[in-house]
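Researcher: Next entry in the queue.
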Amino acid sequence: MDVSSVLSDDDYDVVSNPGQRSLESSTADFGHIPTQNVCEPPPSQIARDKFDSVSWTANDIQAYVRKVLGIATPTLLSSDTTKRVYIDGMFDGLNAGHALRLRQAKLSFPSVYLIVGVYSDDQLRSHGYDTFFPHVERCEVVRHCRWVDEVITDAPYVLNLDFINRHRIDYVSLEEGTSVDPGCDKARLKGYDAMKDQKIVVPTRRTPGISSTFPVLPATCVSSEEPQTMQAEVYDIGPHAP
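Model: Structure for this entry, 242 residues:
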């Protein structure tokens, strides 16, 4: 079923994930997310009132992607070809902002196989960041998100073309404003800039007003005696936020 029917105002339909395997076969070998249809319940009226992005249909999201990529007509984004889209992060305390961004990435094209890379604990520590949840738990939370088709547990901290080619990735999903965000890690920005040079970046838009109870600060900025749980009104999937 064409994902363009998802989340119209009158009908919340089923998103199909073509080409995936059955739940039984996936469970048997733990290969990747199973093939069952993905159903999206409608958001509450409170969520609609507070967050614009929850009501964006697949058509809305794809129209924005076409505009950014300079694609004039929807027919150039054929539903016959599945796009392999990649998104990465630490996902330490996955919140509504993360989920809404994953949703945008999944609906960027008529047919998307969404691959999510999760940074390891060792990688994050080597760049001066602590996590609240261990790597295996962060991967499991992402794995159970309805929009995710595959989780890469050894994601590189800095994206490179070798990784892109090895995983046959067509596009990298990047949140707007990341490249000019002074709080974003400079090492990771180099990788994202390289992807922009290849013209394979597709945008997602931020959802303002998302609260997070697990902001992750650089380890050098938080003493062992200070509580690390606090309330924040910013979210991202980079090390400067959950």
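Model: Helices lie at 23-29, 45-50, 58-69, 96-106, 121-126, 135-143, 161-166, 186-197.
Researcher: Noted, moving on.
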